Target: Ketosynthase family 3 (KS3) domain-containing protein
Amino acid sequence: GYGMSGDAYHITSPCNDGEGGYRAMNSAINMAKVLPENIDYINAHGTSTQIGDDIELTAIMKLIKENPKIKISSTKSSIGHLLGAAGSVEAIFSILSILHKTVPATLNLDNPSNSYNVNLVPKVPQENNSKYVLSNSFGFGGTNTALLFKSFE
Model:
């Protein structure tokens, strides 16, 4: 599934309610006819900015509610921000997480600011037999994209 949205809230900051990111993710799962509770892993855009990460987590929580089985991590913590290439490399990470049955860690996650009951996969990769993986790419100017990948059966 594929979803995109534009919130055009600010050139460098997403809207506080996370609505743009939520709409992109919701469109992707609706296109694929998948329920949010069937997602096993979300590769967050996760740029390690307090504003951006908190707003993305707000959008994710709106989508998945508080489902502690869903793992969420950011691969930018290990590779940095690749700007225009970030979405494609993170999509590859997402597909590899399905193939290798492993969720990549969020490195250097010492003091998460969230108060949600979610697994942010801190510091160490975790085993996961993922069937559905969602990959987020949220950019400047409010461009939001989400891709949903499914394991091959």
